[in-house]
Amino acid sequence: MRGFGELRKLMKEAQKLQEEIAKRREELGDTEVEAAAGGGAVVAVVNGHGVLRSVKISKEVVDPDDVEMLEDLIVSAVQEAQRKAQELAREVMGKLTGGFPGLPL
Prior knowledge:
There is one protein chain. The protein is of the alpha+beta class. It has helices at about 1-30, 65-95, and strands at about 30-35, 40-45, 50-55. A three-stranded antiparallel sheet has the order 1-2-3. A hairpin with a 4-residue loop joins strand 1 and strand 2 (about 40-45). Helix 1 (about 1-30) runs antiparallel to helix 2. The longest helix has about 30 residues, at about 65-95. The protein starts with a helix and ends in an 8-residue tail after the last helix. The mean pLDDT is about 90.
């Protein structure tokens, strides 16, 4: 009978961990991460899941004769913000899961 008690305890701990993971994922969705490109000419803001929330573009960088540069700055800022969000998610969730493979970020 001792085995059932241990199993029940393990199941409760797993449920608590699952609830904590869900809570942290929700918090990540509410967290904003920002990155800039071109010395701050373009700023991208994503949530903790890497979903783009906004892009701010300085008027000085808007040049109709060089749209490609602006496009590159936007891509760069968004990619960096998403990278930061992934890093944040790994850090936050890693504290809970201990980096255990297969658990959701």
